[in-house]
Design a protein that fits this description.
7 helices; about 55% helix; about 150 residues; elongated; alpha+beta; 4-stranded antiparallel beta sheet
Length: about 150
């Protein structure tokens, strides 16, 4: 992004954007909602990222209007990259939102790590562990768990 584009994106998302991460799935997002579609198209053009949704009337909550709104959404690693690039240009309030989202994203586990840890928890209880060591695939899984423990510890 050029300095002008960076400034425009930071200013637009400061006023109209939302930064966050889901507390259970650790899915990270940056989003903006507008009645006018042109600013969202410009946002997409400047960032070269994100998806635009078709205009629709949002659910009846205290923030919604009766006018159809378009939404620009950015998820995952691209959202993380944009948050890191914009952080220093944002207000303290937005910096806290970005820091919270990035912290949650950094704490996530991959599906493989979750599967291995879940499997290990089940098999390390009681005497099942001794008999499980006889199996080659079991030894591989336990080695993976031990490796994860060493990396996180």
């Amino acid at each position: 992004m050029t300095p002008f584009e960076l400034g425009w994106v930071a200013g637009f998302l400061e006023g109209e954007g939302s930064f966050g991460a889901h507390s259970k799935s650790f899915r990270v997002w940056v989003t903006a909602v507008q009645v006018q579609r042109e600013p969202l198209e410009r946002l997409r053009r400047y960032t070269h990222m994100g998806q635009l949704t078709a205009p629709r009337i949002r659910s009846q909550d205290r923030f919604s209007s009766q006018q159809p709104c378009s939404t620009w959404n950015l998820y995952g690693q691209n959202a993380v990259l944009l948050m890191k690039e914009l952080r220093d240009h944002m207000s303290p309030r937005r910096q806290v939102q970005i820091d919270r989202a990035l912290t949650r994203f950094a704490a996530r586990l991959t599906r493989k790590e979750i599967a291995v840890k879940t499997w290990a928890t089940r098999h390390q209880m009681g005497t099942a562990r001794k008999s499980a060591l006889k199996s080659w695939s079991t030894r591989r899984r336990l080695a993976a768990v031990n490796q994860l423990s060493l990396e996180s510890g």
